[in-house]
Design brief:
The complex is a heterodimer of chains A (123) and B (363).
Chain A: E1 3-5, E2 10-15, E3 18-23, H1 25-31, E4 34-38, E5 45-46, E6 51-57, E7 61-65, E8 70-75, H2 78-81, H3 85-88, E9 97-100, E10 111-112, H4 113-121
Antiparallel strand pairs in A: 1-2, 1-10, 2-3, 3-9, 4-6, 5-8, 6-7, 8-9
Chain B: H1 10-15, E1 19-23, E2 26-31, H2 35-44, E3 46-50, E4 55-60, E5 84-90, E6 96-106, E7 109-114, H3 119-129, E8 135-138, E9 143-149, H4 153-161, E10 173-178, E11 181-186, E12 195-201, H5 202-213, E13 218-220, H6 223-232, H7 266-275, E14 280-286, E15 297-300, E16 303-314, E17 319-326, E18 336-341, E19 344-351
Parallel strand pairs in B: 3-13
Antiparallel strand pairs in B: 1-2, 3-9, 4-7, 4-8, 5-6, 6-7, 9-12, 10-11, 11-12, 14-17, 14-19, 15-16, 15-18, 16-17, 18-19
The chains are: A alpha+beta (123), B alpha+beta (363).
Amino acid sequence: MAKFFTKEHEWVEMDGTQATVGISEHAAHELGDITFVELPQMGKSVKQFDTLAGIESVKAASDIYAPVSGRVVQVNDKLEDAPELVNESAEADGWICKLEGGDPAELGSLMDAAAYAEYLKGL
Amino acid sequence: MEDLKATPLRAHHEELKALMAPFGGWLMPIQYKGIIAEHKWCREKAALFDICHMGEFLFQGDIEADGLEDVFTFSVKGIPVGRSRYGFLLNEAGGVIDDLIVFRLAEDQVMIVVNAATIGNDFSVIRSRLKEGAQLTDISAVTGKLDLQGPLSREVLVELCGSEIAGIPFFKFIKTRILGADAIVSRTGYTGELGYEIFLPSHKVAELWELLLLDPRVAPAGLGSRDLLRLEVGYSLYGSDLDEATTPLAAGLSGFVKLDKEFVGKEALLKEQQQGAARVKIAFRVDSRRAPRHHYEILHQGAPVGTVTSGAFSPMLSCGIGLGFVKPEAAALGTRLVIRHERVEMEAEVVELPFYTGGSLRA
């Protein structure tokens, strides 16, 4: 399944109408040691680019934005006690949550992996 | 940004791929491998810090006749030769111009170790308080400083410098020779662990740094971990927890102020002691892993009562910890607080310092 990325460094993978969301390896590296992930409320509905969750590292506190619209149907509760999973595996085991009911058409306003790699070069 | 100063180790840090950032006018290493890994290394092994940015002044003369005795909040002549003392340089209002350590090198010689960002101002203030003709020299540029901190620091240094290191008690130092140069090895630090501050000529710093890093028990650590380490044991950071608008009494540091001697700022402190401080320092522990940060607001029973001055996630306690200043009514141990900044909110409780008590400091 293909990943798409936002300019704010979230990633999303869509399987039908279900979207898995996380932050990119680049973002995890830039944040440094991640010490806390504020997981979203189950059942919360968000529009694309709304504030979805929060993340804190030894350096800073940041917001995580919804890469696509949807309703929170699952959170990665492993992150409650082991937020460092995001540093270790930002784009796989360190996923943040799953959203249901999204519109795959919204992926059109995101970058695919190649475009994101180009975008990072320009930062 | 262009005129940032660099220590003799800049190229070494860059070679180690350190993340460099400005600190007190200096370009300093914040982290090498990672802040938490370096913090852990210091708590378990021996971490090496480049602290060459800090300032050193040398005073030579008669401590009393030249006026040095009345400059700081503690007695200089009362420090035995071979010992050092922590305290403050205050303004007339009792505010902290700097926190510093004075080393009594000889009957008529002391070294004053100050913060990097305040070197210039400290020097002119101290100079202005001494008798004309008194000998005070800023030796910061020719003096290097490396801190080796952690439970294994003693055995590492004994192997390198000899067995006399083993007998140095807390807040004592020895003059010795390292790599053929005069050096001072002091049993002091900023981490809450057993550790040493090593002063030696700037041009010898790189050689000692390289030599120490050959030891597998030693790893470099940056200012990021240093800040975490000091906060876990409740040490103040000048510029965050202490400044010219804050008195040592408000900051809970009256133990380093001797009100039975003369010093600039004493009148203001006596007055504050009678009237009570408008705000006082607290230490608080957050109920979650959320980190309070500098400038976050502190609330008590729904009302703003103060501000966070230092905060972090504590790896040793696995929760957020912080220092702040609040109205006295919110300062009692056990007081429940809310720490807030924009969307971020966390509950916390006023606790005693230090947060972390397991260090090897007095081992």
